[in-house]
Specification:
Helices cover 37% and strands 10% of the residues. The structure holds adenosine-5'-triphosphate (ATP) and magnesium ion.
Amino acid sequence: MSWEVVPPLGACVAPVLATTGSQAGDVPRETAPPPPDPATVARERMVRMLGLRDQPPLPAPEHPRLVAVANQKGGVGKTTTAVNLAAGLALQGSRVLVVDMDPQGNASTALDLPHEPGTPGVYDVLVGGEPLDGAVQEVPGIPLLWGISASVDLAGAEIELVSQVAREGRLRKALREYLATHEKRHGRLDYVIIDCPPSLGLLTLNALVAADEVLIPLQTEYYALEGLSHLMGTVALIQEHLNPGLRITGILLTMYDGRTKLAPQVADEVRSHFPERVLDTAIPRTVRVSEAPSYGQTVLQYDPASPGARAYLAAAREFAGGAIDLTDDPGREDQTPLSPGSPQGDTPRAETADV
Ligand SMILES: Nc1ncnc2c1ncn2[C@@H]1O[C@H](COP(=O)(O)OP(=O)(O)OP(=O)(O)O)[C@@H](O)[C@H]1O
Ligand SMILES: [Mg+2]
């Protein structure tokens, strides 16, 4: 008779436990997952609230579009438009560079770009003849968006440039040289958005010579059209003498307050003068748009669900050639048509939006 030796249960189990390191006294090796990166969380929230996952990507332009946001009138929404349009394009997949040509540095503030005197920026490019490459910074919180800041040093450039050779073509030359560098490092730029100061001096001239297109923000108020003929005249002169390819490709109505009788009247008048050029999207006057820069953010980051953020997103898509119809989107509760015929402003929903 033969006996089969069956080892005791413990003899089988013990070696297994030993290899897994779970013997009494061992500390569990599982570690808690690292806390999510706040920037990633903020970006995901923005993408979700803007409904970007449901949108098809923007059509890529055939070649980089160089756009000057210009109007010699002060406070009409040039900077607000430059930064929010740029953010709207970048968040929808375009590669965008913002150039701050205004010594006030407002676009740099809104994009949270360092711009203390001495920071490499537009001044070094225009006056120092430095390559643009050393002045380009990544915009925090928005992938695919880069910026070149302006410091107060730039205020002196108007005078310092007077004695320089080819003074009105310096930004154009620097930008054209830079495009290939950007393409090699980060992929081809789709848009360069240049924020102009409120004047038609050498800084704006540099922007208009560098650009292929002009986007004119017009504040929807009584004097909206005043000064526009002067700007049109300047553009015509630049076309004739310095930049034959320059075109006015858009007029964007800003600070549209649909609660007033005046806003729709002004909008109608502007549209009747320039039927082809006025964007269907008008930007509502909202507190959120004006608050965002004080947090170093675009309104798309600051309050993605607000009417101002959605309007700039729609304007970006329209400008890129793929208009959004927000009224047809059943997934969003806060529908407000974006045409100037519809009242917009600080709606109660905007006030309660989570910030
Ligand atoms: N849609 C809007 N709703 C509410 N406030 C707005 C809106 N757009 C712009 N503003 C505010 O209006 C003011 C002027 O806007 P912005 O700085 O963009 O104009 P600008 O044309 O760039 O001015 P400047 O000529 O001084 O460069 C700012 O305080 C800005 O926050
Ligand atoms: Mg400005």
